[in-house]
Amino acid sequence: MDGSTWNQLTSSDPENMVISGSLLYADFGISGGLWLWNGGWSKLTSSDPENMVISGSLLYADFGISGGLWLWNGGWSKLTSSDPENMVISGSLLYADFGISGGLWLWNGGWSKLTSSDPTKMVVSGSLLYAEFYPYGTWLWNGFNWSKLTSSHPETW
Length: 157
Fold this sequence. Notes:
single chain; 157 residues; mainly beta; four-stranded antiparallel sheet
């Protein structure tokens, strides 16, 4: 420690956390649920998210096969009953990978299917999505079409 004063927010150990500005969302597991810290704790749900991503005040939470994908923006809105394998977000653009049978989709207030392929990895920067589709290589989605960048497969992103 560097001599700074630390404030303990909770003695519980979160499974996952995401932050945007002063909003901290913490998943305390099956017995604890999902909570929001904004100067004090507020319980959002007793459910345990498998994955969360955040952009601004928009929190997207995947509650698994039985719960589906939900949006928190001061209240819960169910986006789909499907369970994404992976999600990445940039601004209002949410990219969700629904696996081999579901493909890759974009949520921007409504769903748009980008491809039937299942990416093994995804990263996003601004409006550009980079995705690895094994064994087809690494591709770029520019918001309108796909471009193949390389046939190789990066070990890390």
